[in-house]
Amino acid sequence: xxxxxxxxxxxxxxxxxxxLGMWAFLGSECLLFGGLISTYMLYRGRVTGGPRPxxxxxxxxxxxxxxxxxxxxxxxxxxxxAAHKGEDRKTNLWLTVTALLGxxxxxxxxxxxxxxxxxxxxxxxxxxxxSFYTLTGFHGVHVTVxxxxxxxxxxxxxxxxxxxxxxxxxxxxxxxWHFVDIVxxxxxxxxxxxxx
Amino acid sequence: xxxxxxxxxxxxxxxxxxxxxxxxxxxxxxxxxAITALEVSTVYVDFGPLFLPALLxxxxxxxxxxxxxxxxxxxxxxxxxxxxYAGLVLAVGVYxxxxxxxxxxxx
Lengths: 196, 107
Fold this sequence. Notes:
heterodimer, A: mainly alpha, B: mainly alpha, 4 helices, 82% helix, disordered N terminus
């Protein structure tokens, strides 16, 4: 019973079903982003009628955005750590900081999309544009969903204390958040740093 | 009391399973930041033929560090690793084959 309340229902292997489900979900997300990334890799050179990646990418700006998202992974893991220790205030603080860093990243992405659009790269301008906006847009939506989950969690936790059993909820959202970060690690290298 | 016991057990289990302190996480983040700076430097410094392999290696190292330490996969049940890496390997395999098909048969 103790194990069940602390970590949700467990499977016959003695591990949490919730955690197992989350890892299966993340495994399937690899396939989704794998498809989007490989489509981009296939079409990134097709720029007929539009600007080339090297003409519009602002590497210093995107590097700062990447750094912000990377640091949000640190604040998320600190939130998970605090939740496991039962430190409610710290948990809420780190969750809020993580959401703010995520919002900064999304804000940067909106600014970047606007700048690219003004420079002549629309969604249907070229295959490069379509695959670029689809890939980075899908990632941005994932970050936004993560921010909504983080802020919802903070709201829920403010209304009631965070007992030890709630730590697993923070951990699951943490896994999702870190996954979003590792996807960006790949996108940043393959899309922005490797020239066409 | 029961809740306290449960909470204490959870905390102890957490430290035991995850095996990292907050300072450890900060060290990992500092390493990740340093690797990111190195990655960005490849745009401005000529790495010659090492450019692409160096970038890909740094990407993989960052990926593994986040998955292993921040996502705790290194310290968790091996079944989770199996579920995640199975998806990852399947994705990389299928899409590598897909890209190769376009490379070799559509020109």
